[in-house]
UniProtKB/TrEMBL annotation:
Descriptive protein name: DUF5916 domain-containing protein
Segments forming domain Carbohydrate-binding: 47-206
Record InterPro entries: Carb-bd_dom_fam9, DUF5916
DUF5916 domain segment(s): 247-355
């Protein structure tokens, strides 16, 4: 153990040797912003990715700034952008120059909201209120696939927001062209007395062949293009005065469901279900969303996971209605799956508690509404939902409220409450109300450092139990170092029934850091050496005793120039199990103290290539025995229209626990995507889990016949081994047809 610590410390001192050779530094936003002027045109453009005569009227902007791999160095390939507008649309075009032309393009698939690490892409961030805090981000790849999101202070992100806009691209031997048309109704901007407006804007590009990232207005590589205090300025636009606009999206669904098995019964049912959503932009600051007879049949199905930790599994929200404005309501510790909170996650509100049971099965939602207000001074929002009563679930009402006061340039204080009111179920249980209240804050100390906190309390009318939770975090990010210290506590009785907490009765301490070395000593194939250390320490809140400790040392982490990586972790671990502690995978493990060391490695080839592979492994002690873990992932994309992936995960238990449990638990996943274009795709996956002998099929045909108007055909099949004797297979099949139509007034 002493030798391992010595090796780790030796590796961690390596970056200091070449620290002086890192020339890139954090710089403050320039007081003089670059500007790009928009040109007015009288008529609508044909959006086809081929820039017609009207584009010659606009003055081009060039001279992008290199962010990666060498901040501030001369670019190999520049980008030329232009901006036009008329009474209906804001138009943006980009000519992404490249001497290799089509040969250099990297586009693995046509997935909406594609991975920015894997694709050539061009995009822009628009700050319509020019408050240097909020932005709409719209991105495309060379095949017109769309990616969009909302950002707030470059800290909170609505990654699954889908805006109404259009883009078409054209690929040539000298580069590729992107042509955007954004309706004014999609954009948010203030009502002013002035005819002309100025907005914050920045443009960015990733040339994936050389993994070269650039932006029009410069910002440090530690940040992202949504850090709007580093943005330039769009001038010369005369948008129409903002007016209330309404977007309706009705749907019609037809489905059949078939079940077979002694535990779930033998029956077939058919359902015809209408419903829909209405979005009303009451003014530039306020948006009201309403949903009726809500259905999420087209949402991605949860994937199976075999959990070998002592923490609850967090499944992400996949339903579109709840994804929008998620960053306003979904605050909490580690809301963006970063490493700074360790394995702990605390959220006072988690939308998956509405309309889904604990197993992820849908519960009907009769109606709901969400109103959000955003301005320079404050943000506020509210959600109310009515969940229908069924044979197994009582009628339930939900209410969520959120308020945030902006202080100074990028600081804020806020509060959140949730209420769940459950009616009685068949006179077998009485109704009750669960409450959670929270207060939180975020303070940007300087360009690199921030501090945030949240305190929460819960109460339940059913048991009169009251609980408390809180966390605080200091976070610092520069071009050379990422560091943090997170402290959190969850009492035994904290019960956020409309939220999520990884574990109760715990005090968590999770400091950590990563060095980001770009020294001149590195060979050309290596972009960064990033060793680090992450500590996870958990005490029982009621007794103060240490119950878990992990020293997650990362002496080697290599980021390659092509986007691949290789890393080694060594994790000495301490575990103390008591009567009330859950056991991983329900393995029988005697109470007591367990000490062991686990080692792991992570590796990946270039994720933008037609064929890419990831291989991860972990081995070492585990509760008195051994556990070996292997994960293999591969993706083959011979064309952007075709993408196939295979993932294999296996846990090999050897003499674990008091009964010397030895078994192999394996999970196979196959995904496929066949796309005529980004708007017409056939998507499917299959999973085989040897734990419980579970098989899952999901196949979905998606056709976006108009922007955000869809036709879905969905097939789901689930089979698993029952728990009763004699053991037999249980089967569920579901076939769904759904059409949605969007109309904006």
């Amino acid at each position: 153990m002493r030798f391992l610590y010595f090796i780790n410390i030796l590796f961690l001192f390596v970056p200091f040797i070449s620290y002086s050779q890192n020339s890139a530094a954090i710089f403050a936003p320039d007081s003089i912003k670059r500007t790009i002027e928009a040109t007015e045109i009288p008529s609508n453009l044909k959006i086809d990715g081929k820039l017609e005569e009207e584009w010659k009227l606009a003055k081009p902007a060039t001279q992008f700034f290199q962010i990666e791999p060498y901040q501030g160095k001369t670019l190999n390939f520049d980008t030329e952008i232009r901006v036009l507008y008329n009474k209906q649309f804001l138009y943006i075009s980009a000519f992404n120059k490249d001497s290799l032309g089509k040969k250099s393009l990297r586009v693995p698939d046509f997935r909406r909201d594609f991975s920015s690490r894997s694709h050539d892409h061009f995009g822009f961030s628009i700050d319509g209120f020019n408050d240097k805090r909020n932005a709409m981000v719209m991105v495309t790849n060379p095949y017109s696939t769309q990616r969009d999101l909302l950002t707030f202070d470059d800290v909170l992100f609505d990654l699954d927001w889908d805006g109404l806009w259009r883009v078409r691209t054209h690929r040539t031997d000298s580069g590729w062209v992107a042509e955007f048309a954004i309706p004014w109704q999609t954009l948010r901007y203030p009502r002013t007395d002035s005819t002309n407006q100025s907005w914050g804007i920045n443009f960015f590009r990733n040339r994936r062949y050389s993994n070269e990232y650039s932006s029009w207005n410069p910002f440090p590589r530690a940040f992202s293009p949504s850090r709007m205090d580093y943005a330039g300025t769009l001038i010369g636009i005369k948008p129409p005065p903002p007016s209330p606009n309404i977007r309706i999206q009705p749907y019609l669904l037809v489905s059949t469901k078939n079940s077979n098995g002694s535990e779930i019964g033998d029956h077939t049912s058919t359902e015809v279900k209408p419903g829909g959503e209405i979005k009303w932009a009451i003014n530039p600051n306020t948006v009201l969303d309403m949903t009726f007879n809500t259905d999420f049949a087209q949402a991605d199905v949860d994937r199976q996971v075999n959990n070998i930790t002592r923490f609850g599994i967090f499944f992400p929200e996949r339903r579109q209605f709840f994804l929008e404005n998620a960053s306003l309501f979904g605050v909490g510790q580690a809301p963006n799956d970063d490493l700074s909170g360790g394995s702990m996650r605390i959220q006072p509100f988690f939308s998956r508690r509405i309309g889904l049971d604990d197993s992820g099965n849908p519960i009907p939602i009769d109606a709901g509404a969400r109103m959000v207000y955003r301005s320079l001074k404050r943000n506020a929002g509210g959600i109310v939902m009515r969940q229908r009563g069924t044979d197994g679930s009582p009628l339930t009402h939900y209410a969520i409220g959120r308020y945030v006061e902006n202080i100074g340039k990028q600081n804020r204080l806020g509060g959140l409450f949730t209420m769940k009111q459950t009616e009685s179920l068949h006179d077998t249980s009485s109704g009750y109300t669960n409450w959670v209240g929270a207060a939180d804050g975020f303070f940007r100390i300087n360009e690199s450092a921030s501090f945030n906190f949240m305190v929460m309390g819960s109460a339940s009318g059913r048991s009169n139990d009251q609980g408390f939770a809180a966390y605080a975090q200091y976070f610092r990010r520069t071009n050379r170092l990422i560091s943090w210290w997170t402290q959190s506590i969850v009492t035994q009785n904290f019960n956020p029934e409309v939220g999520f907490v990884s574990r109760n009765d715990v005090i968590a301490t999770t400091p950590g850091f990563f060095f980001l070395d770009r020294g001149a000593w590195m060979p050309k194939w290596l972009r960064g050496f990033e060793p680090g250390l992450m500590i996870e320490m958990y005490h029982r809140a009621t007794t103060g005793e240490l119950i878990e400790f992990q020293f997650n040392s990362n002496p080697i982490w290599l980021n390659l120039q092509n986007g691949g990586f290789f890393g080694i972790l060594i994790n000495p671990t301490f575990q103390r199990l008591g009567d009330t502690d859950e056991r991983p995978l329900d393995i029988t493990i005697t109470n007591g103290v367990y000490k062991y060391v686990r080692s792991s490695f992570y590796s990946s080839t270039d994720p933008s290539r037609k064929f890419t592979v990831q291989l991860n492994g972990e081995t070492g002690g585990y509760y008195g025995g051994k556990l070996h873990f292997l994960e293999f992932f591969s993706r083959y994309s011979p064309l952007p229209h075709l993408a196939f992936t295979f993932r294999y995960q296996a846990n090999f238990f050897r003499n674990v626990g008091s009964e010397n449990f030895s078994d192999d638990v394996q999970l196979y996943t196959i995904d496929g995507r066949v796309a005529l274009n980004p708007r017409l795709q056939l998507i499917g996956f299959y999973q085989k889990n040897t734990l419980g002998n579970r098989d899952t099929w999901n196949v979905r045909l998606s056709w976006e016949f108009k922007p955000l108007s869809f036709l879905f055909l969905v097939y789901n099949n689930r089979a698993y081994t029952g728990t009763k004797n004699p053991v037999e297979r249980q089967y569920e099949q579901n076939v769904i047809g759904k059409i949605t139509f969007l109309k904006q007034f």
